[in-house]
# Entry
Amino acid sequence: QKEVEQNSGPLSVPEGAIASLNCTYSDRGSQSFFWYRQYSGKSPELIMSIYSNGDKEDGRFTAQLNKASQYVSLLIRDSQPSDSATYLCAVTETSYDKVIFGPGTSLSVIP
Amino acid sequence: DAGVTQSPTHLIKTRGQHVTLRCSPISGHKSVSWYQQVLGQGPQFIFQYYEKEERGRGNFPDRFSARQFPNYSSELNVNALLLGDSALYLCASSSAGGYYGYTFGSGTRLTVV
# Structure
């Protein structure tokens, strides 16, 4: 059974700090990797996608991918209280027909 | 341009009943996927449809079924409801499968009593 695991939370960081979220996956053939943000009571929202090894930056967010280690991470710089949410790591199975989500990591940014 | 539309938003059903959930994808998107999210957990894959054909099925019992219509809208049906079926049901829209990621609808909150 293909799996996606995330670091257990909840994670609390002070406002302005860097939040680091980690994810590992089991399917070596996975080609697409995503981070979704989900506010309480809302549906997930795609915030980052990454397809090749290395870093991808978008504003305060940086996604990092290491396929050899089967590891994906998300860094949030200058964390804001509005970043408080659950962050879901998601990975496509080899066939692209199915996206597997991790259990999520809850992030709280303390003013 | 409308996003992903799901209906109803909330509903309460009794054990043993049947439920139908509906989803309209983003205009131009031909793929719809269904997920179940239990409180405190990540979304669990139920089905994916592309061009009206089932492309993937998750580890759910046969009580769960779905279909996609010529206009690419989709229905998720659940028979013989159990208390454990209480969850947020999410519809995800994409142009083709999961490669580029999904846009989710706001979900249907199902409570089984």
In short: The CA atoms of residues 37 and 43 of chain B lie 4 Å apart.
